[in-house]
Amino acid sequence: AQSVSQHNHHVILSEAASLELGCNYSYGGTVNLFWYVQYPGQHLQLLLKYFSGDPLVKGIKGFEAEFIKSKFSFNLRKPSVQWSDTAEYFCAVRSSSASKIIFGSGTRLSIRP
Amino acid sequence: EAGVAQSPRYKIIEKRQSVAFWCNPISGHATLYWYQQILGQGPKLLIQFQNNGVVDDSQLPKDRFSAERLKGVDSTLKIQPAKLEDSAVYLCASGPGQGQYEQYFGPGTRLTVT
What we know:
The complex is a heterodimer.
Chain A: E1 4-5, E2 10-14, E3 19-21, E4 24-25, E5 31-38, E6 44-50, E7 56-58, E8 64-68, E9 73-78, E10 87-95, E11 101-103, E12 107-112
Parallel strand pairs in A: 2-12
Antiparallel strand pairs in A: 1-4, 3-9, 5-6, 5-10, 7-8, 8-9, 10-11, 10-12
Chain B: E1 5-7, E2 10-13, E3 19-24, E4 31-37, E5 44-50, E6 53-56, E7 65-69, E8 75-79, E9 88-95, E10 104-105, E11 109-113
Parallel strand pairs in B: 2-11
Antiparallel strand pairs in B: 1-3, 3-8, 4-5, 4-9, 5-6, 7-8, 9-10, 9-11
C-alpha cells in the first residue's frame, strides 16, 4: 500500500540549531511532494512543494527540502531555527497515478528559547 | 482573499446521533477535500470533489458518512449514526484544480462523540 513515513514524532531543539525532518514515501513513478505546517491554534498551511525540476526546493520562512528520488525521500531542512518555528510539520505525497494526497503522521517541533 | 470557512468549530454529540459539518471553499476553487484527522495522526482523505463531481471517496465509510457539494461551491459532510471512533477533527480544504495540487485548509471542526 502507498504510504508516507515521518519517523520523528517529536523533535526538541534549541534556538539557532539546525533542523532536518525526515519524510519517506513508498510510491513508484512520478510524485508531487509537499510540506505543510500547523502553528499552534492556526490552520494547516503550505510550506513548500516539489513538482519537477530542481530537486532542492525553497519555501517560506527559510525552509527548504530536497527530493532524493533514489531514496524516496523529501526531507525538510532549516539552517537555524527560531522559537516561532514551534509547530507540527506534515509531509504529503501525491502519486501521478492517483488523485489523492497522502499525509504522513506529522512531526511536532518544539524550540527552546 | 477570504480563506476556507468551516462551521461549527466544535461539536459534542452522543453515539448514534447524527451531525453535519459545513464548508465554504475559497472563491473560484474547483477542488474541495474533506479530511479526518484523529489525534496524533495526519489528515486522512475522506472525499475529494472536482466542481460538484466526486473524484475519490474510496476511504469514506459510506454506511454512515455522506457528503455533497451543492452547485460546485459549498459542501456538507454528514455522519449518521456517529460512533465513538468518529471523534476527530474534520478538515475541509480547497484547491485551484487544473493541475495545481496545493491545498488551502480551513480551521476544522473538532467532533467529540461520547
